[in-house]
Write a structure and sequence with these properties.
- With 237 residues, the protein is an alpha+beta fold.
- It has 2 domains: 124 residues, Hotdog Thioesterase (Thiol Ester Dehydrase, Chain A, Roll); 86 residues, Hotdog Thioesterase (Thiol Ester Dehydrase, Chain A, Roll), CATH 3.10.129.
- The protein is 18% helix and 37% strand.
- It has 4 helices and 10 strands; from the N terminus they run βααβββββααββββ.
- The protein has a 10-stranded antiparallel sheet.
- A hairpin with a 2-residue loop joins β4 and β5.
Length: 237
């Protein structure tokens, strides 16, 4: 029987934490990514099935809200479920629980694309999926428009290790670029409460991405070759 709510327990290991010995933003995003893939496999629309139909899942938008960051060696429960789809968009909710207390929650907006044309398409594999009828979060990732005037903070050349199994830059890398663009003292003084991102264009090997800040909490990635915004993000501390 297909499980609408997927759950597993994980230990916050050393490679998931930051220099303050707490779960990092990229560590949290990695945990959400892994459980999403595992649940998709269980529901019949995982990577292998999609690849066999020359399709792939891409993350279009994501939002994460954190009340308490777990510490190194904490053991937490990660849970995820799908909302009923809306057209081509699929909404997946997440939460992190420790000893019955919700520490974090999130929502990702996913879309199926044709692996050759890279255009959005219908994913018939979803017909066999189980969706949670109620109990969804009262938010979803919102549109964040690029800003024409922004301060350049840092530049990153896409390396082989930045690419994921779909051949483009993994969504977690964008968060890492933002974090690496901010002085270490900022990380020491502030604790991140919310992260929201829009993925506007695929980024591939050898692209050069400039990380810009338009407001204290607004960031964007600008591709040098075509002068195009490839992502926008909002952070709250």
């Amino acid at each position: 029987m297909k499980q609408a709510i997927w759950s597993h327990h994980v230990e916050i290991t050393s490679y998931l934490v930051d220099f303050q010995r707490r779960l990092s933003l990229t560590g949290l995003l990695a945990l959400f990514q892994d459980i999403a893939w595992n649940h998709a496999d269980h529901l019949g629309h995982g990577y292998a099935v999609m690849a066999g139909a020359s399709t792939a899942w891409v993350l279009a938008r994501q939002r994460v809200d954190v009340t308490v960051w777990p510490d190194w060696n904490d053991r937490v429960e990660i849970r995820t479920w799908l909302r009923p789809p809306r057209g081509l968009l699929v909404y997946r909710d997440f939460e992190v629980i420790r000893a019955g207390e919700q520490l974090a929650r999130g929502c990702g907006t996913w879309m199926a694309i044709n692996a050759e044309t890279r255009q959005p398409c219908v994913a018939p594999q979803l017909q066999s999926a189980s969706f949670r009828a109620q109990g969804h979060w009262d938010f979803q990732p919102m549109r964040i428009d690029p800003e024409p005037q922004a301060e350049s903070l840092a530049s990153f050349a896409v390396r082989n290790s930045d690419l994921d199994l779909n051949g483009h830059v993994n969504n977690i890398r964008y968060a890492q670029w933002i974090l690496d663009s901010v002085p270490l003292q900022v990380h020491r003084q502030h604790r991140l409460k919310s992260y929201e991102v829009n993925f506007l264009a695929e980024v591939r090997a050898d692209d050069e991405i400039i990380i810009q800040r338009s407001q204290p909490t607004r960031f964007q990635g600008w591709r040098e070759s075509d002068q195009k915004a490839v992502f926008t993000a909002r952070l709250e501390v």
